[in-house]
């Protein structure tokens, strides 16, 4: 099974925008379509509360003609056009789809951050974890989220195998970002967020990238758009993950980043797993 996860940073801009960045994004989308994955998880879709427009759906259907789509959008009391997630999965798959609320603080449960696909033997779930904020104003709420989300994944794991994809908005270890020394008080690399992610792994989950590649350095999934040379200089962070239940870690064949060319921000990540191994 081949799976891809990507924080696309605005689905509308990607599909209908006319900027140079939109053109780069569409090249990445075409690459994903050519890889013919069983499922694609998209985060930060930024769609309106009623979902994609007819025009957007037509473009997606043209790009992924043999796929079904489900989405979870930000709705009141959360901000409109904010966060959001989407799954595209092959027509041959027949999952039960759910849009869990985990008892997160504030409006987080209404920001369209989780979609779960239930299959006979496993769950495939994606998450767009809330950012702690530029001034860490949301850090306390983020800590509560991390506990609630870990509880949720653990509850799934008690029933079936779990594959959890998405933008977790945290670099777990110092080797997961280019400049750990100057980012200890930066959102995504605070001690609290790293501890929250470590707690999640302790609940019975494996970071598949580290499982396959060990302590390799210099491999990231996100480069800031604010610094024009961040990707050229590979001044990045690894904040996007595929996690699996510990008991199926040995069934993972590949876990890696896809090449998104000069486009900064997130790059897609790939997981290949064979349950028959």
Report on the structure:
This protein is of the alpha+beta class and 277 residues long. The protein has one domain: Endonuclease/exonuclease/phosphatase (Deoxyribonuclease I, Chain A), CATH 3.60.10.10. It is 25% helix and 26% strand. The chain is built from 6 helices and 15 strands. It has a 6-stranded mixed β-sheet with strand order 3-4-2-1-15-13. Strand 7 (122-128), helix 4 and strand 8 form a beta-alpha-beta unit. Helix 4 runs parallel beside helix 5.
Helix content: 10-25%
User: What's the CATH H-level homologous superfamily?
Assistant: Endonuclease/exonuclease/phosphatase
For the record, the CATH architecture stands as 4-Layer Sandwich
C-alpha geometry: globular
The level 1 CATH classification is Alpha Beta
Strand order of the largest sheet: 3-4-2-1-15-13
Distance between the termini: 12 Å
- Please indicate the count of domains: 1
Query: For the report, how would you describe the main beta sheet?
Result: 6 strands, mixed
Return the average pLDDT rounded to an integer.
97
Radius of gyration from the alpha-carbon trace, in angstroms: 17 Å
Helices and strands, in order, run as EHHEHEEEEEHEHEHEEEEEE
Note poorly predicted spans.
none
| Strand residue content | 25-35%
Number of strands: 15
- The number of helical segments is 6
Structural class: alpha+beta
Q: Write down the CATH topology.
A: Deoxyribonuclease I, Chain A
The gist of it:
25% of the residues lie in helices and 26% in strands.
